[in-house]
Amino acid sequence: MGEIVVDCGDPGRLVRFWAGLLGGEPVDRGPGWSYVEPPGFVRLAFQRVPEAKQVKNRLHLDVEVDAVDTAVAEALRLGGARLGEPVTDEQGSFQVMTDPEGNEFCFLWGWVR
Q1: Potential cystine with 49: which of 7, 56, 95, 110 (Cβ 3.0-4.6 Å)?
Q2: Any alpha helices (H) in the chain, and if so which ranges?
Q3: What pTM value is reported for the model?
């Protein structure tokens, strides 16, 4: 896989959010296209589209973390939001979050593989 592309309204804002969470340097290739290459992960690219997000994502990222409270605090500081409360089941725990444009993702911890 070469990259994962996210449609969005503000590529520069989203690339900085995700670079802040995952690491890597944000790159603005043009006003409508930005990307980041997080260490140990595929490139995340963000392309400007005219329409706003209207429904729940059909695909989302799961980000494994050691300290969920720290990860949530950093996501909130960068402009993300928390959706609901943490969920725990026999596989581990997760917290649903959104990036600044409302794209859902999850922080995972304590997962059994």
Answers
A1: 7
A2: 11-22, 68-77
A3: 0.93
Name the residue among 85, 59, 60, 61 with its Cα closest to residue 72: 85
> Token pair 């990860």 is at which residue?
71
* DSSP run (H or E) holding 27: strand 27-30
At 74, list the tokens.
Answer: 């950093």
| Contacts of the segment 7-11: beta carbons below 8 A, 24+ positions apart | 7/47, 7/49, 7/53, 8/46, 8/47, 8/48, 8/49, 8/53, 8/101, 8/103, 9/48, 9/49, 9/52, 9/101, 10/48, 10/100, 10/101, 11/46, 11/47, 11/48
3-state secondary structure of 92: strand
